[in-house]
Amino acid sequence: MAAVDPFDSALDLLRRLNPKHTSEHLNALIALAPDLTEDLLSSVDQPLAVRRCRQSGRDYLLCDYNRDGDSYRSPWSNEFDPPLQDTPASAGEEQSNAAGLPSEKVRRMEIRANEAFDLYRELYYEGGVSSVYFWNLDDGFAGVVLLKKVATPGTSSEGTWDSIHVFEAIDRARFTQEHDETDRDRAAAESDEQQIANIGKLVEDMELKMRNLLQEVYFGKAKDVVGDLRSVGSLSESARDREAQRDIIGSMKR
Amino acid sequence: MASSLATIESFVEGAPPGERHRADTDRPLRNLTDIKTLTVHEPSLVSELGPAFEKYNEEQLATVKLPGSSQQVVISSHNSLGDGRYFDVESSSSFAFDHATQSASDVQSYVLDGAQADLVKSTLKNLSTYVQEHYPNASYGVCPTENDTKVAIIIVANKYSPNNYWNGRWRSLYIFDPSSGSLEGSIKVDVHYYEDGNVRLLTNKPIASSVSSDTGAGICKEIATGEKKYQEELNRGFTSLSEGAFKSLRRQLPVTRQKIEWDRVASYRVGQDIGGGSSRR
């Protein structure tokens, strides 16, 4: 028998164990096979954790992309909590520094993206928490848009929505912006807005698609399967009805 | 920290329905295959899973075809004779059951007698009619339980469609107490839909009612009423889930019923600091 990759087996199990308890299953798998810790943590999405920003008092979401060691960066203040031991040097214009802070230009865009998705969150989630994190790439930048909503505790229903959207934006337009200073600034500003609008449209379309998929396909399927298991009506009656229908169709053909 | 054995036991217990859709092969639980891969360094662990398989089969109401028969019989703690043997009233037989492979062997004649025997048989007869009327494909069983003082009634329906990435199971288990006329139990529905994901519907509806006439017909009538009511409740639940709970998590569209005008949003509030803190340092 060919050796099976334990990592594949772990993912296979996670696809079939109750998704409500993914974090517990993940921790159990890591305890069982510590070698897989890194791979599993980086490939299995878990419910997003929320932290309050000490500077702004606003909530933000935690993920691997705003983490440095045990600290997380708030998108509202750009500060790490707990503060990093080595205070990062001021970030250069075009590259991230060692501590994972985006460059000044990308941070400016990150601020705008957080504003835009804060509005998006309010319009679609009517509550919840959003966070957007950007980081520099050699030829552009990448980012993650996070959204979380927990159904109001104490109401009849409980539930959580977690969205994680990761994207890369490759800068193809750089060479066209070689004009004088003012021109370049304006071109860059327009381009920032355009980029955020593009990201926004992508996220909005994807979430609409996912939401419809869940409601129509997944919930609809579960309902159909229950109907396949047990029939509310009498099976012999519906068999008789089908028989009668066939007779009618048959007599019309003649 | 849970032991490794407790961990893999929980993986057996958490296996979704339809793990073995071809009941005639002795293919073990798919979760077991994964468990074996993950415990290669400690192969002895898997050999300790016997009690976990027994618990899984009895709780999930595993079904098995007896050798030489086409009908499925149900495995539960109520029709256990101990030492891995179970009995089935309808076929008047007892058999050995292998919990790891879910196969039956060594069928022997088993004649039911005792205080509840008549009630068990009349319930079985009525239950058979009811099950045929409402379950396209289900197995069922009735047997005396709790030292022949009560009657256990079991229905289990499975429908597996692994090619379409879904499997489903309906389990009903009731205990009828002839001394008080009480009928207590639960209906559990488990649907696993896993095309490009892992979606699970798990419900557990406790049932507590009483039966006025102490007969098989009376018991089955009460069961039929309760199950119809629950299925209708469940169907309404799907609708209210879409319209209520799901909508309260995320709307399909904003209140304006229009998608966001991103070109305006992106330039909106530009130049303002967000939050309380300054973005510039």
Automatic annotation (TrEMBL), chain A:
<dbReference type="GO" id="GO:0030036">
    <property type="term" value="P:actin cytoskeleton organization"/>
</dbReference>
<dbReference type="InterPro" id="IPR019771">
    <property type="entry name" value="F-actin_capping_bsu_CS"/>
</dbReference>
<dbReference type="GO" id="GO:0051016">
    <property type="term" value="P:barbed-end actin filament capping"/>
</dbReference>
<keyword id="KW-0117">Actin capping</keyword>
<comment type="function">
    <text>F-actin-capping proteins bind in a Ca(2+)-independent manner to the fast growing ends of actin filaments (barbed end) thereby blocking the exchange of subunits at these ends. Unlike other capping proteins (such as gelsolin and severin), these proteins do not sever actin filaments.</text>
</comment>
<feature type="region of interest" description="Disordered">
    <location>
        <begin position="73"/>
        <end position="103"/>
    </location>
</feature>
<comment type="similarity">
    <text>Belongs to the F-actin-capping protein beta subunit family.</text>
</comment>
<dbReference type="GO" id="GO:0030479">
    <property type="term" value="C:actin cortical patch"/>
</dbReference>
<keyword id="KW-0963">Cytoplasm</keyword>
<comment type="subunit">
    <text>Heterodimer of an alpha and a beta subunit.</text>
</comment>
<comment type="subunit">
    <text>Component of the F-actin capping complex, composed of a heterodimer of an alpha and a beta subunit.</text>
</comment>
<protein>
    <recommendedName>
        <fullName>F-actin-capping protein subunit beta</fullName>
    </recommendedName>
</protein>
<dbReference type="Pfam" id="PF01115">
    <property type="entry name" value="F_actin_cap_B"/>
</dbReference>
<dbReference type="InterPro" id="IPR037282">
    <property type="entry name" value="CapZ_alpha/beta"/>
</dbReference>
<dbReference type="GO" id="GO:0008290">
    <property type="term" value="C:F-actin capping protein complex"/>
</dbReference>
<keyword id="KW-0009">Actin-binding</keyword>
<dbReference type="GO" id="GO:0051015">
    <property type="term" value="F:actin filament binding"/>
</dbReference>
<keyword id="KW-0206">Cytoskeleton</keyword>
<dbReference type="InterPro" id="IPR043175">
    <property type="entry name" value="CAPZB_N"/>
</dbReference>
<dbReference type="GO" id="GO:0000902">
    <property type="term" value="P:cell morphogenesis"/>
</dbReference>
<dbReference type="InterPro" id="IPR001698">
    <property type="entry name" value="CAPZB"/>
</dbReference>
<dbReference type="InterPro" id="IPR042276">
    <property type="entry name" value="CapZ_alpha/beta_2"/>
</dbReference>
Automatic annotation (TrEMBL), chain B:
<comment type="similarity">
    <text>Belongs to the F-actin-capping protein alpha subunit family.</text>
</comment>
<protein>
    <recommendedName>
        <fullName>F-actin-capping protein subunit alpha</fullName>
    </recommendedName>
</protein>
<dbReference type="InterPro" id="IPR042489">
    <property type="entry name" value="CapZ_alpha_1"/>
</dbReference>
<keyword id="KW-0117">Actin capping</keyword>
<dbReference type="Pfam" id="PF01267">
    <property type="entry name" value="F-actin_cap_A"/>
</dbReference>
<dbReference type="InterPro" id="IPR037282">
    <property type="entry name" value="CapZ_alpha/beta"/>
</dbReference>
<dbReference type="InterPro" id="IPR017865">
    <property type="entry name" value="F-actin_cap_asu_CS"/>
</dbReference>
<dbReference type="GO" id="GO:0051016">
    <property type="term" value="P:barbed-end actin filament capping"/>
</dbReference>
<comment type="function">
    <text>F-actin-capping proteins bind in a Ca(2+)-independent manner to the fast growing ends of actin filaments (barbed end) thereby blocking the exchange of subunits at these ends. Unlike other capping proteins (such as gelsolin and severin), these proteins do not sever actin filaments.</text>
</comment>
<keyword id="KW-0009">Actin-binding</keyword>
<comment type="subunit">
    <text>Heterodimer of an alpha and a beta subunit.</text>
</comment>
<feature type="region of interest" description="Disordered">
    <location>
        <begin position="1"/>
        <end position="25"/>
    </location>
</feature>
<dbReference type="GO" id="GO:0030036">
    <property type="term" value="P:actin cytoskeleton organization"/>
</dbReference>
<dbReference type="GO" id="GO:0008290">
    <property type="term" value="C:F-actin capping protein complex"/>
</dbReference>
<dbReference type="InterPro" id="IPR042276">
    <property type="entry name" value="CapZ_alpha/beta_2"/>
</dbReference>
<dbReference type="GO" id="GO:0030479">
    <property type="term" value="C:actin cortical patch"/>
</dbReference>
<dbReference type="GO" id="GO:0051015">
    <property type="term" value="F:actin filament binding"/>
</dbReference>
<dbReference type="InterPro" id="IPR002189">
    <property type="entry name" value="CapZ_alpha"/>
</dbReference>
